[in-house]
Design a protein that fits this description.
single chain, about 110 residues, mainly alpha, 1 helix, about 0% strand
Length: about 110
C-alpha cells in the first residue's frame, strides 16, 4: 500500500511537472505575442506621427500657395488697372495722317 501510494504520488508529481512545463511554454508564447504586438503598436505610432507631420507640412504649403494665389490675383488686378490707364493715356496721342509709328525695342 505504501509503495502504491508512493508510485501514485510520483506519477502525480510527474504529471504536474509536465503540466507546469506546458504552462511555462504557453506563458512564453503569450509573452512573445505580446512583444510582437507592442512592436507593431510602436511601428504604427511612428507611422501615424510621420503621417501627421506630412499632413502639417502639406497644410503649411497649401496656406503658402493660397497666399501666393491671393498676391498674384492682386498683382494681376493692379496690372490690369495700369494697362487700362496706359491705354487711355496713349489714346490721347494722335499721329498725323500717313505717318508711320517708330519701332521701339530690339531689332
Amino acid at each position: 500500500m505504501i509503495i502504491d501510494a508512493m508510485v501514485e504520488t510520483m506519477q502525480s508529481i510527474h504529471s504536474s511537472s509536465s503540466r507546469i512545463r506546458e504552462i511555462v511554454g504557453s506563458a512564453r508564447r503569450v509573452n512573445q505575442l505580446l512583444e510582437a504586438i507592442a512592436t507593431g503598436a510602436d511601428e504604427q505610432a511612428s507611422g501615424v506621427a510621420q503621417t501627421a507631420q506630412a499632413v502639417q507640412q502639406l497644410d503649411a504649403m497649401t496656406q503658402r500657395n493660397a497666399a501666393l494665389v491671393e498676391l498674384t490675383a492682386a498683382s494681376a488686378a493692379s496690372l490690369k488697372q495700369q494697362a487700362v490707364e496706359l491705354s487711355r493715356k496713349v489714346a490721347n496721342f494722335k499721329l498725323p495722317q500717313g505717318a508711320q509709328p517708330l519701332a521701339i525695342g530690339p531689332g
